Amino acid sequence: MYTLFSILIIITCVLLILIIMVQNPKGGGLSSAFGGGNQIMGARKTSDFLEKTTWTLAIILVSLALLSNFAIPRSGNSEEQNILEEARPIDSDLEEDGIFEDVNIKDELNDN
User: Fold this and answer.
1) What string of DSSP letters covers 25-69?
2) In a structure prediction context, what are the per-residue pLDDT tens digits for the chain, which is 112 residues long?
3) Domains of the chain: which residue ranges?
4) What pTM was estimated for this model as a whole?
5) Do the Cβ atoms of 64 and 12 come closer than 8 Å?
6) Distances (CA, A) of 24 to 28, 45, 56, 92
């Protein structure tokens, strides 16, 4: 399932890049190629289509990124968990030496 989300995210990114590259930031680009405003797919209609497509792809990308979090494979016996458990000390050296045996926290707090 995670692989499916990854592939969909990559496809969405590529489509979004292509749609953005088609647009010209100063009003040119694909919309200026059609010329007059009286055509069926005139300059205004083309820029509206490109803008709606850009927003739609951006929303799809964010949604896929959020949904992919739930598809990330998680296992209880992961390698990272094992490494963390091995790094933790089983018995602390401080407890064995008895350094803190005569300290009473309540008395120390009441004195202050």
Assistant:
1) TTS-BGGGGG--TTSTT-HHHHHHHHHHHHHHHHHHHHHHHHHHH
2) 888 999 999 999 999 999 988 887 665 555 555 544 444 444 556 778 888 999 999 999 999 999 998 888 776 555 666 676 677 666 555 555 566 666 777 777 777 6
3) 2-86
4) 0.52
5) yes
6) 5, 15, 18, 65
